[in-house]
Specification:
Length: 799
């Protein structure tokens, strides 16, 4: 099972002649199984062989983005690529394909830029004509006896256009520089102006009357220039004004016609770019092809070039080498003059990457694990168990049949196609997780017998109400969950409090024990028998003999019938006495006799005490003995020399093909060269586990706390809104329920379905990461990053 442990990885040396580098990398890109190792991760991209090609690809992608922006401005829809691989196979070319794409895209971008410049100049010309026309019209309307009298008195006039939003600022500045010795008239222009950025703005005409004077005139002119406005001369006679207006109106009509013609030409050109040629629009097709070229050259830059040969190291999942070799042979068979690349299996000298085959169901659960850390190669992946344990833990805290059903219905909706097009599209990757959380919330709600804070009598209560007191029926056991009679009892909160607390401890100890068992499987898989006997077995015994025994006492107490509840022993008191008074006979034993219980507890306590020094000192002692008997020997490097002759490299590879493959050997991560370092490490591990057993068990009590808080909040919302009206019944009760229901629904959705669900989710993350995974999970691996064209996605997928 690939999700249980990482796929088996194989280490290969890759050699590619420069003449066929593009073709080989293009062939490998269709396989989702090649992880290329960067030969020098510290080398800047600018110093790599194909950095110029990557830069050119970025420039072309920038031009494509500019074209895409124009299409969005003109509100032209385009079709995204549903299948990137299918498109790349249809448009599969040669290493010269990028030059062709670059020329085609640059020509289209330049044509559009030229048309856009023409459009901008026409728009500016139209705005200038309109401003001049508006100035003349307002000036004519303002011509009266007062203005003529003002000109006779020696006042000068200046007319122009400013933005409406600058009106107050313009008036204030003019007033200050002229010290109030000026008259300002502002007239709004009704029709808005379109600027270069295609935004509409409101403008207004200003007319200034001021005394004659060169200094004042220069100041006013500088202010007008600072507002980037045009000044217009007004003819003195009415006939000249009329002629100017007629001429400007004709120019405005001509500018409008040219403007509409240019816009239609640009729109038609962009429509052509949005046409579907293969399986998507031309612009989207170009973006994917150029992105592919950039992706190919960036991965080719990860190889080391010596003379005219590229060589590097790659990781392949087991069994993929035959497919790769066959594809390279086919590449050489299609073109005999084209030298083919070669791969040769090498001895593994470093830790392989971790690779899992994921799908839409397992992806969100694996992301939870990867957020904490990437699994070490070949260690057990917590993502497999997380599929069940994580939704179950959330369901324990969110346990309610009604709320769980709502969440389950939401999960079902997210699995439909309509959800991908709605505002909830961001939750679609989490759809199966939400579905499972809703299912387990319903399951735990049935155990708690809680439906929106109401107990359900599904199987018939085992209690009869006689004289306001409950009497239990003989030989009656409620079939599933809590008996509904507890929902109306006076000690309902005390009972549920005790039940959920014990249930939380049982779940926590079971979860941690499962984690320790997984650690044992890891040690056996890595043939690390020292950790198996010196860590796994003592840790397993310590946890089961302490808190495992406490869980056993809880079950034993539940299965024992006491005539008087006062005679029932306290499990907490029993555990405390087991440590503080181990030789005393319990006053209230849970076993048949106190002596038997004391004897069993002495054995368990002895095992617990012995496990601590075993974890602390045995592993350093064994390490010291092994170091004396087997001194460390360094394995010689098998990485080829960077300065080696390519022909010699090829001959060596052919020579190695005739030799049997060396056995794969991976050095463990947890080896220490110094015994002092190991003693400190083992001391920390022992103290952390012993103290963590107590703190981690207490941490699982959050299951009890949040479950109790959820049920109490639901009860408060129900009692404060609907409970009284439902109990009243009749017409007024129905009206009151209808009136109060929106408040109940909003409180339930906002507080319980959103805030409380998020809180339960975060607490379950804490239990998953800290309490569970810390028992076995190293999280020091790195992901397998396949060189594959499937990593190239369309804009729609990126959004």
């Amino acid at each position: 099972m690939s999700l249980f442990r990482s796929e088996q990885m194989e280490f290969y040396n890759l050699v590619i002649p420069r003449e066929s580098a593009w073709d080989v990398m293009n062939t490998l890109g269709y396989f989702d199984s090649v992880h290329i190792i960067d030969h020098d991760a510290t080398l800047p991209q600018i110093n790599r062989p194909f950095s110029n090609y990557v830069k050119r690809c970025d420039d072309v992608l920038q031009k494509i983005e500019q074209i895409d922006d124009e299409m969005r401005n003109f509100k032209i829809e385009k079709k995204y690529c549903p299948d990137v691989i299918d498109l790349l196979k249809k448009r599969n070319g040669s290493h010269k394909q990028f030059e062709e794409l670059e020329q085609e895209i640059c020509k289209v971008a330049d044509d559009l830029e030229h048309q856009q410049q023409t459009l901008t100049s026409l728009q500016e010309k139209k705005n200038t004509i309109r401003e001049n026309l508006e100035v003349l019209r307002n000036a004519v309307a303002f011509q009266n006896e007062d203005s003529e009298e003002a000109s006779l008195l020696g006042f000068q006039k200046m007319v122009g256009v400013i933005l409406k939003e600058d009106e107050l600022r313009f008036k204030r500045i003019i007033f200050r520089i002229t010290k109030g010795n000026i008259h300002v008239e502002i007239m709004d222009i009704q029709e808005q102006f379109i600027q270069q950025d295609r935004k509409s703005v409101q403008k207004c005409v200003f007319m200034l009357f001021y005394p004659c004077g060169d200094l004042t005139q220069k100041k006013i002119q500088r202010v007008i220039e600072s507002f980037s406005n045009n000044k217009f001369d007004i003819p003195t006679s009415s006939e000249q004004q009329a002629q100017r207006i007629t001429m400007l109106e004709n120019q405005l009509n001509e500018a409008d016609q040219l403007l509409h013609l240019t816009i239609s030409q640009i729109n038609k050109r962009l429509q052509d770019l949005s046409e579907v040629k293969h399986n998507c629009s031309w612009i989207e097709e170009m973006r994917i092809l150029v992105t592919k070229e950039k992706y190919l050259y960036m991965n080719l830059n990860m190889l080391n070039m010596t003379n005219s040969v590229f060589h590097g190291q790659i990781w392949l999942p087991q069994g993929q080498d035959q497919k790769i070799q066959q594809a390279l042979r086919n590449l050489h068979g299609n073109d005999k003059q084209l030298p083919s690349g070669q791969i040769q299996e090498q001895q593994i000298q470093s830790t392989p990457p971790t690779y899992y085959k994921l799908n839409s169901f397992t992806y969100p659960f694996q992301e939870i694990v990867n957020t904490y850390g990437i699994p070490r190669y070949k260690e057990i992946n917590p993502g497999l168990s997380t599929i069940i344990t994580f939704p179950f833990l959330v369901g324990v805290m969110f346990g309610d049949v009604g709320h769980g059903l709502l969440l389950f219905v939401c999960g079902l909706y997210l699995t439909t196609e309509d959800a991908k097009k709605s505002i909830f599209s961001g939750l679609v990757p989490m759809r199966y997780m939400i579905l499972l959380i809703g299912f387990f919330a319903c399951y735990n709600g049935l155990i708690y017998n809680d439906f929106l804070s109401i107990s359900l009598n599904l199987f018939g209560s085992c209690y009869n109400l006689v004289d306001d007191e409950y009497q239990i029926k003989e030989d009656c056991v409620y079939k599933f969950g809590i008996d509904p009679a507890w929902g109306s009892s006076t000690n309902q909160l005390t009972f549920m409090n005790s039940f959920k607390m014990k249930l939380a401890v049982i779940i926590g100890v079971t979860h941690m024990t499962f984690g320790i068992i997984l650690k044992g499987f890891n040690t056996l898989n890595f043939n690390n028998y020292t950790d198996f006997f010196c860590e796994f077995i003592p840790q397993f015994l310590l946890l089961t003999c302490s808190f495992g025994y406490m869980d056993f006492l809880l079950f034993l107490k539940w299965c024992t019938k006491f005539e008087d509840t006062k005679d029932a022993p306290s499990v907490i008191t029993t555990m405390i006495d087991m440590v503080l008074r181990p030789f005393d006979v319990p006053e209230k034993p849970l076993f048949e006799s106190g002596e038997q219980q004391r004897f069993i507890q002495l054995i368990l306590l002895t095992i617990i005490i012995l496990c601590i020094p075993i974890m602390l000192i045995t592993k350093p002692l064994i390490f010291n003995l092994n170091k004396k008997n087997h001194p460390y020997q360094q394995i010689p490097s098998q990485v080829p020399d960077d300065d080696a002759n390519p022909e010699q490299l090829q001959n060596d590879m052919q020579k190695d093909q005739s030799q049997p493959h060396s056995k794969v050997c991976i050095q463990q991560h947890n080896q220490h060269d110094d015994i002092g370092e190991l003693i400190v490490h083992q001391s920390i591990e022992t103290i952390e586990f012993v103290l963590g057993s107590v703190s981690n068990t207490a941490s699982y009590l959050r299951l009890w706390a949040l479950s109790l808080a959820h049920s109490q909040l639901a009860e408060v919302f129900f009692s404060m809104t609907l409970a009284s009206h439902i109990g009243e019944g009749g017409f007024f009760g129905t009206i009151g329920s209808i009136v109060q229901f929106p408040g109940f629904a909003l409180a339930t959705f906002g507080v319980l379905m959103c805030m409380d669900l998020m809180e339960c989710f975060l607490h379950a993350l804490r239990l998953q990461w800290v309490e569970f995974q810390s028992k076995f999970y190293k999280a020091d691996g790195y992901l397998f990053k396949a060189y594959s064209f499937t990593n190239i996605k369309s804009n729609q997928q990126d959004d």
